[in-house]
Amino acid sequence: MSDRALTMLDRYKSWTPQLLSVLRAVSGFLFIQHGVQKMFGLLGSKGQPPIMSMAGIAGVLEFFGGILLILGLFTRPTAFILSGTMAVAYFMAHAPQGFWTVINKGELAVLYCFVFLFISAAGAGPWSLDALLKKTD
Predict the structure, then answer these.
(1) Which pLDDT score is estimated for 95?
(2) pLDDT in tens, 26-57
(3) Which class for 39: exposed (0-12), middle (13-18), buried (19 or more C-beta within 10 A)?
């Protein structure tokens, strides 16, 4: 590889922490919309499930978990819980409809599960309240 190509790769590698923050915030923003559907009956919802039902609890986790991810606050435990929530959603709602995710419509649940699992391991990134609070310790 040429020196110029290696320099470009090094430059892109330096963006990794900031892009982790962007991935976290965008994932939280997209995820919160599912909670808004369930909790408030908005955004094309087909109704509001009872708050103490499985779908109602999922809505609470999606809404408040999404907010915490956007802010980057308590990121690791939040992302871990949301990853598990998506695993449960996949195996309860999608997997029984067939193996292939394109057929059982489980792609999004699987993708959220592994993105959140990655975020729980990697942390919030530098653009987060977690990082800000860590600096003040």
Answers:
(1) 97
(2) 999 999 999 999 999 999 998 899 999 999 99
(3) buried
- 68 is written with which tokens? 């915490």
| Greatest pairwise CA separation for the chain in angstroms | 61
Would you state the structure tokens that stand for residue 92, as one six-digit string? 């309860």
Positive or negative torsion for Cα 36, 127, 16, 137: negative
Higher-confidence residue of 26 and 9: namely 26
Question: Token pair 């408040």 is at which residue?
Answer: 64
Contact 109, 79 (CB under 8 A): no
Domain count, the chain: 1
Residue 60, sorted as left (phi over 0), alpha (psi -120 to 50) or beta, turns out to be alpha
Residue 120, both tokens: 């729980």
Residue 54 sits in which domain range? 3-136
Which tokens sit at 2? 């040429």
Distance of alpha carbon 69 from alpha carbon 128, whole angstroms: 9
In what helix (H) or strand (E) does residue 30 lie, and over which residues does it extend?
A: helix 16-40
